[in-house]
Write a structure and sequence with these properties.
DUF3047 domain-containing protein; globular; alpha+beta; signal
């Protein structure tokens, strides 16, 4: 499982160079890493914020990386709506995408969910513990390698 994750990370590092972006870790488990990119964060006059998030999944063979654009309501009740989702293969080639329509409206944020993490970070309710700048591939690979090392260290401690 970790080999697949490391392979995706290695392929991500080899992806074609792109403009530097600042990505932040929102959460991580041994199975998945959740990040948010803030350089393209857009705050609208009505208080809504648009942000990109990404998840890197351990053990996912077909589409280990998912990138999504969210619109988050930072005023009033916490609400969120997807605007676009792009699924990538291990070489960071986009495989499939989905774009919202006008009828895909806001949904309430479920406490403790990924949407809640996205809402909290996008609206400034939580501070960033870790951030790194680089292309999407570089950042995904760096975080994937760090997570793999953490998982290995945790497994080694647990085995003792």
């Amino acid at each position: 499982m970790l080999k697949t994750f490391a392979s995706a990370a290695a392929l991500a590092l080899l992806a074609s160079p792109a403009l530097a972006e600042t990505w932040h870790v929102m959460g991580a488990t041994p199975a998945e890493l959740l990040m948010m990119e803030t350089d393209s964060r857009y705050a609208q006059p009505n208080g809504d914020v648009s942000v990109w998030t990404s998840s890197v999944k351990v053990g996912e063979q077909e589409e280990p990386v998912v990138k999504a654009l969210w619109q988050v309501s930072c005023k009033g009740e916490p609400r969120i709506r997807p605007q676009m989702v792009v699924w990538y293969d291990g070489a960071l080639n986009s495989k499939e995408s989905w774009t919202a329509t006008r009828k895909d409206g806001f949904q309430p944020v479920v406490p403790g969910s990924r949407g809640d993490l996205t809402w909290q970070y996008a609206c400034g309710k939580k501070a960033w513990p870790i951030s790194i700048s680089g292309s999407f591939g570089e950042v995904t690979g760096a975080y994937a390698n760090a997570l793999a090392k953490l998982v290995d260290a945790t497994s080694e401690v647990a085995a003792r």
